[in-house]
Amino acid sequence: MASRSSRWFFPAARFHWCMAVAAALALCLLAGCSGTGAPAKQDADSTSQQQKEKGHDHEGEAHSGEHGDEHGDEHEGHEHGDEHGSEITLTPAAMKEAGIVVEPAQRQPVNAVVTAPGRVMPTQDGVAHVGPVIAGRVTKLFVKEGDHVRAGTPLAELEAFDVSNLKGEYLQARAELAKAEATLARQRQLVSDGVGSKKNLEEAESAWGLATASAKATTARLRSLGINPEKISEETAFNPRILLRSPIAGVVAQRDVALGEYVEPSKDAFQVVNTNVVWADAQVPPAVAGEITVGRTGFVRDADGHRHAGRIIFIAPTVNPDSRTVTVRVAVDNPNVHLRPETFVTVEFERPVGTTALSVPADALEQQGGEYFLYREHEPGTFERVQVEVESQASGKAIIRAGIAEGERVAVKGVFYLKSQRQKGELQEHHH
Questions:
Q1: Four-way CATH pick for 128-272: 2.102.10.10, 3.40.1190.20, 2.40.128.90, 2.40.50.100
Q2: Does domain 88-105+365-432 have CATH number 2.40.440.10?
Q3: Which of 20, 57, 188, 253 could form a disulfide with 273 if both were Cys (CB 3.0 to 4.6 A apart)?
Q4: Is the entire prediction scored with pTM above 0.70?
Q5: pLDDT, tens digit, for every residue of 243-270?
């Protein structure tokens, strides 16, 4: 029995053991499923967090983009401000102080410019050749070439012994005249009293006439030497020195004497030239000369390109047989001696052609290289620099082909001030 019981017991125990193992496996499986679910949740949370971070990154990028756009806008605005930074805004007081004048661009008659070669020369009254009218030796020199002198300025002192004789003749002539005047007065009184003779009166009148003529002649000779007869006395009568004086104001162009040199009356010791006004003689074709009239404006352009306005004062009535041209003379004020006598120049004349064009004063232009600019006032006191195309310049006017429209207001005076303000602003922006 015992063995049977023992045999049957083993299967039951085995069954229970198998059940325990199965339960343990079930628990393991449940635990595995539970472990697998946690990582999934963890992955989901991680994915959600990544999406949030990614979203945050996108927001950051958007925020950065917004800031970038703002900065970009600010930068673009700064660049736009630079463009407007070239604008110059001035108060009315500043414009007045700078001498800025604004005028509208207008269409005006156009003149054709004719050029001709010319030569500068002094005026007929602008040159003085100074020399003695009596021979003498140079004892003093008061000026040198290039000195500016006034009319009457002493140039040199000469020792001329013939002057002593002339002074003596003058004193003698004055004495004889005084004697003749007294004799004539006495004879007139005698005739008036009825005791004088007509013959004696006539002789007295004749003697007085001769004495008067002699005194006038010696006086004139003294004055021609630069000697004031009224200052001659017995003490100074034998002083042989005379002064050479300049008859005009100007510049000593030549001095052809030296100390101690003996100068004859035929020699020109000095040449004085007045260049305050000069002439420019242009050689013009006859057909062009026929369209030019005296009194109109002519322009003289010197070697440096400077243009000087003058007045036409003479047109030759004949044609030069050698050059087959007509001389047209232009008088030009020349206080700063930009035009020197005997230099070659270009003379410009204008003649109307019957058309009009948009023009501004030439002084309104700012030139930079080969380009031209104007300062346009688009608001009161606010100027912008605009490039224009210049067709030509004449009579102080510039013909504008493109760049501005008729009626637009531009600065015609004070342009240099506007230019300096523009350059100052550009320099500040460059440093910024």
A1: 2.40.50.100
A2: no
A3: 253
A4: no
A5: 899 999 999 999 999 999 999 988 999 9
